[in-house]
């Protein structure tokens, strides 16, 4: 399975690398497959209930193929339906039962319906620019500080579990943005730099030695 380098989508990124080694644990962080956040009439759909599109299911199958044979021992998913649907397709391909952890859930927005569809991306980008501001909220919803603690706790729980060397997490764009930014030492202020396409794969290795820094950040995207 060949995938694209997300930093340069026109370039073949090569095969997704194999799993962890004796001194490093490898974490594959995935965004769920494509969904449609707006209906045919242009009105927003409840983001907590949307399902994968046909292309999103194709992406999920491509993710399963890309990760096959990589020695994955643990599959974790957020509790949001689109992530659960993606993880179910992965589970069938990897022969694993997904573990649901709501700590990996989407950043909870306020009133997205008030934002015109053609302005949504720009407004979201602006919200990420302000993520590190005191008491900053996502469209009047969850505070970024609370989100960072919740997501950081989910990552710490996963890293504290001793039984895996190679794991997969299926989650969401803001969660991936924050985890990558945190691993690079940027925190909430770095979220705006790491947009995540549906069906993308982030690869981060974490040392088994306490206190050492993670390494080998790389991002790919599938179909």
Any key phrases for this structure?
disordered N terminus, Rossmann fold, 223 residues
What is the element layout, followed by pairings?
Blueprint: E1 2-5, E2 12-15, E3 24-31, H1 54-67, E4 74-77, H2 81-94, E5 99-100, H3 120-129, H4 144-160, E6 166-171, H5 173-183, E7 200-207, E8 215-221
Parallel strand pairs: 3-6, 4-5, 4-6
Antiparallel strand pairs: 1-2, 1-8, 3-7, 7-8
Helix pairs in contact: 1-2
Structural account:
This protein has 223 residues and is an alpha/beta fold. It has a single domain, classed as Rossmann fold (3-Layer(aba) Sandwich), CATH 3.40.50.1240. It is built from five helices and eight strands; from the N terminus they run βββαβαβααβαββ. It has helices at residues 54-67, 81-94, 120-129, 144-160, 173-183, and strands at residues 2-5, 12-15, 24-31, 74-77, 99-100, 166-171, 200-207, 215-221. It has an eight-stranded mixed beta sheet. Strand 7 and strand 8 form a beta hairpin. It is globular, with a radius of gyration of 17 Å. The model is unreliable at 1-13 (pLDDT under 50).
């Amino acid at each position: 399975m060949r995938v694209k380098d997300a930093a340069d989508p026109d370039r073949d990124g090569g095969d997704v690398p194999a799993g962890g080694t004796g001194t490093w644990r490898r974490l594959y962080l995935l965004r769920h497959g494509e969904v449609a956040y707006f209906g045919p009439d242009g009105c927003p759909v409840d983001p907590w209930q949307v399902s994968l599109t046909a292309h999103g299911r194709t992406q999920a199958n491509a993710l399963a193929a890309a990760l096959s044979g990589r020695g994955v021992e643990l599959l974790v998913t957020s509790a949001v339906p689109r992530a659960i649907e993606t993880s179910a397709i992965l589970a069938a391909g990897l022969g694993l039962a997904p573990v649901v952890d709501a700590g990996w859930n989407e950043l909870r927005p306020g009133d997205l319906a008030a934002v015109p569809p053609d302005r949504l991306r720009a407004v979201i980008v602006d919200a990420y620019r302000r993520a590190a501001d005191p008491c900053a909220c996502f469209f009047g919803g969850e505070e970024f500080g609370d989100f960072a603690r919740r997501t950081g706790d989910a990552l710490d729980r996963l890293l504290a579990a001793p039984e895996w060397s190679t794991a997969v997490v299926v989650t969401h764009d803001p969660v991936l943005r924050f985890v990558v930014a945190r691993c690079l030492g940027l925190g909430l202020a770095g979220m705006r730099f790491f947009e995540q396409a549906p069906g993308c794969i982030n690869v981060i290795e974490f040392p088994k030695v306490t206190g050492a820094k993670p390494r080998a950040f790389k991002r790919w995207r599938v179909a």
